[in-house]
């Protein structure tokens, strides 16, 4: 078993087989000790011992991985017809594939809504089962400045998946080089269903503006031999020219009833009986994030079975830690307390919790402790520092600045209220 913070490359060099799940989601962290999380790349996956004589993309080892995988991966639908919710949208996507004129796609929606699952189902509809035979490649790209950029990609014979934002400020070079390479390569099988390959770019909203403008030019140039599927949580940070060149597909979160239905179905396949009340509680605590809900449900199974209606649903460690941090901010506003909070925020960052997730969680907890008159000012202040957080490179500076500003405002508010009571 490998520890958090280890990169996929390090795990592979030590004789472990690595299969990536996709973009890092902190809700996965406490439920799996086989997980590696790369602080630099922000990717996550599963590692397990591999046979030295075989390739790490071996189908036999992939089958072994499936038998030991989490429910969220074990019961992931593999075709559009097997999706449990948004079935009308799935039918429209299937018709889009069958019509032949397949455009660039921009798939967006909140985390845990099922974007990646639907994209993989769409690729299977396009190319068949061969798209599931994945391999992990580590490529070195030389920038015009002669700087070497190392990037990890997940690929099949028909598509390539990459998170170009992993390359930081060099994401423009990565995008141009990878798309050019894919577009100029021929299909391995002459009898392939399509005469184009597909590039899946995740976290497009995290790309720099230079990279997005380069992507706009590149997607026009190689349209005949390459299609792009862009995946993001929001379109607000994607430039207009890219949005106008793609067919936008929004994947909303499933409803509470749909989440409960999926949880009940998965438990039934596992031979378990899930009380409707507990399913509703899990759905509410997960915020209708289906991935998080399935992880919580599996954690409940490990914690206690048979299930009980009043059973506690375990929370992720980082959420509890963030709540304690918010309580520490509200309880005392001093330079010493600010220093303590800074160390706690830095602890979250070193454990690969994304800074924007920390900011959103911290604001939510602080607003719960604020008076109604203060909430509007805190929300405005949070938006200001969140914007600066996106522009800067040192997240701890902006998180600490937000904390210090909140402490100043909150302390003044409390002192003014105390003075009003005295006089």
UniProtKB/TrEMBL annotation:
The keyword Nucleotide-binding does not apply. This is Replication factor C subunit 3. Residues 101-257 form the AAA+ ATPase domain. It comes from the Eukaryota. Subunit of the replication factor C (RFC) complex which acts during elongation of primed DNA templates by DNA polymerases delta and epsilon, and is necessary for ATP-dependent loading of proliferating cell nuclear antigen (PCNA) onto primed DNA. One of its GO terms (cellular component) is nucleus. Keywords: DNA replication, Nucleus. The keyword Cell cycle does not apply. GO terms for molecular function: DNA binding; DNA clamp loader activity.
């Amino acid at each position: 078993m490998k520890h958090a913070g280890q990169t996929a490359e390090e795990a592979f060099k030590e004789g472990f087989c690595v299969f990536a799940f996709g973009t890092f989601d902190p809700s996965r962290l406490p439920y799996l000790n086989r997980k590696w999380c790369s602080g630099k790349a922000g990717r996550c996956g599963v590692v397990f011992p591999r046979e030295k004589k075989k390739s790490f993309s071996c189908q036999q080892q992939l089958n072994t991985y499936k038998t030991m995988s989490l429910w969220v991966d074990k019961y992931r639908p593999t075709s559009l017809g097997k999706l449990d919710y948004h079935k009308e949208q799935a039918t429209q996507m299937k018709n889009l594939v069958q019509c032949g004129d397949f455009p660039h796609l921009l798939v967006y929606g909140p985390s845990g809504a099922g974007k990646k699952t639907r994209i993989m189902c769409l690729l299977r509809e396009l190319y068949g089962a061969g798209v599931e035979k994945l391999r992990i490649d580590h490529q070195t790209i030389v920038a015009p400045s002669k700087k070497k950029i190392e990037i990890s990609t997940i690929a099949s014979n028909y598509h390539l998946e990459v998170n170009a934002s992993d390359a930081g400020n060099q994401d423009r070079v990565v995008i141009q080089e990878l798309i050019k390479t894919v577009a100029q390569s021929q299909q391995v099988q002459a009898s392939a269903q399509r005469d184009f390959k597909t590039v899946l770019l995740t976290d497009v909203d995290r790309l720099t503006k230079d990279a997005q403008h380069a992507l706009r030019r590149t997607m026009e140039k190689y349209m005949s031999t390459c299609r792009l599927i862009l995946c993001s949580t929001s379109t607000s940070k994607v430039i207009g020219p890219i949005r106008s060149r793609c067919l936008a597909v929004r994947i909303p979160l499933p409803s509470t009833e749909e989440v409960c239905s999926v949880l009940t179905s998965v438990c039934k396949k596992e031979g378990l009986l899930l009380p409707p009340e507990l399913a509703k509680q899990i759905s509410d605590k997960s915020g209708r994030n289906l991935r998080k809900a399935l992880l919580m449900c599996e954690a409940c199974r490990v914690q206690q079975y048979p299930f009980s209606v009043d059973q506690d649903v375990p929370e992720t460690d980082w959420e509890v830690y963030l709540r304690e941090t918010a309580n520490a901010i509200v309880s005392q506003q001093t330079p010493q307390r600010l220093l303590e909070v800074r160390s706690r925020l830095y602890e979250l960052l070193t454990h690969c919790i994304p800074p924007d997730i920390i900011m959103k969680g911290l604001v939510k907890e602080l607003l719960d402790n604020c008076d109604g008159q203060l909430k509007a000012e805190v929300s405005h202040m949070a938006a200001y520092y969140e914007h600066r957080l996106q522009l800067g490179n040192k997240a701890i500076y902006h998180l600490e600045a937000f904390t210090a500003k909140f402490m100043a405002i909150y302390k003044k508010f409390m002192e003014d209220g105390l003075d009003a009571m005295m006089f």
